[in-house]
Amino acid sequence: MRAKLSYLVTAAVLVFYFVLVGSRGVLLIRTGTVLTVTFGVAVLVLPVIGLWFLWKNTQFVRRANRLAAELDAEGGLPADELKRLPSGRIDRDSADEVFSRRKAETEAAPDDWRAWFRLAVAYQDARDTPRARKAMQRAIALHEGRPVQA
Length: 150
Prior knowledge:
Helices cover 78% and strands 0% of the residues. It is mainly alpha-helical. The protein contains 5 helices and no strands. It is elongated, with a radius of gyration of 21 Å. The longest helix is centred in the middle third of the chain and has 41 residues.
């Protein structure tokens, strides 16, 4: 719940910022000179890109949460079997061992979204966020029946 709240607060702050920047872009365009109109258009591009990115990220998070809820209902969420250091951080060797099992599971069933979901969790536990995101995107695509890119 805490993660959802912080995500919503961050999204709200970003939307406020985008509206503020966008209004400045409109003011620059209204000035009417070639220079201010050019700057105004450039300033308006940034909030549009930011809003698009925020929308895509929000869609991704919602889809991943739906998969997690479905997997939880099936009793298929990966158990937390990782050893932790006294500081609370995940032991690297433990994460590597779990990752090896998850990777083998995924290689054995490459069209199973559940295996890809669990692999994404293993990547995240190993602190490999880019690969975790790619694996989760693949799980989402498989779940939705969309074609999967290699």
